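Researcher: Please predict.
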Amino acid sequence: MAVFVALGAFLMTLAGGWTAQRVTDRRHLVLGLAGGLMLGVVGLDLLPEALEAAGREVFGVPAALLLFVAGFLVAHLVERLLAAAHGGDEHGGDEHGGDEHRRTPEVGLTAAGAMVGHSVMDGVAIGAAFQVGEGMGLAVALAVIAHDFADGFNTFTLASLYGNARRKAVAMLVADAVAPVVGAASTLFVTIPQPVLGGYLGLFGGALLYLAAAEILPEAHHRHPAGPTLLCTIAGAGFIWLVVGIAE
């Protein structure tokens, strides 16, 4: 079941990459909805399950919450490291084309490769959640599928932005699409102990929340009217609330 559901992430990643080549002005609505779905899954389903599964406390704080914070900070650190690697594009250059001299294909491929590694862990999260229960698995899969549109979009954009040929950018996009399926398949051969599973879901939840709050939603609201995008975000979170309520 986990592998079958992960195929949705495969298709959504390809859709994101396809959109990156044909950007329209409606992308902000899709990203707004994705951010709401991710927020709803983390706060209403994933974190409560992680707290229940992880069980024990560390120095007065539930282990799942500590790992949740750690996941948020790790995602922030990775983003800052990537931003530092791209610093030449942000701060250098001028109207005479200085940016182009700082764009190296290797940087783009490295950044896209990091997205592929992240997508493998997305697949592991889907498989791990299905080990908790089918309802949990479907909720996490929905969050992953929602934000994999942005993953596909960003993977193709990062690879091509730094001067890589289109075929290399497409190859990285395909690798990013396959990655969640590989990650989900890996959990078919390993049963994760309940405390470890709870800790991992907490860690993944922190990273997922960071992606929603620091990447997806700011991009959704960038240079667009906030009203319709905000409604999409609220609708995404509300939909997850409905799903959780029905599942219970």
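Model: Residues 27-54 form the longest helix (28 residues).
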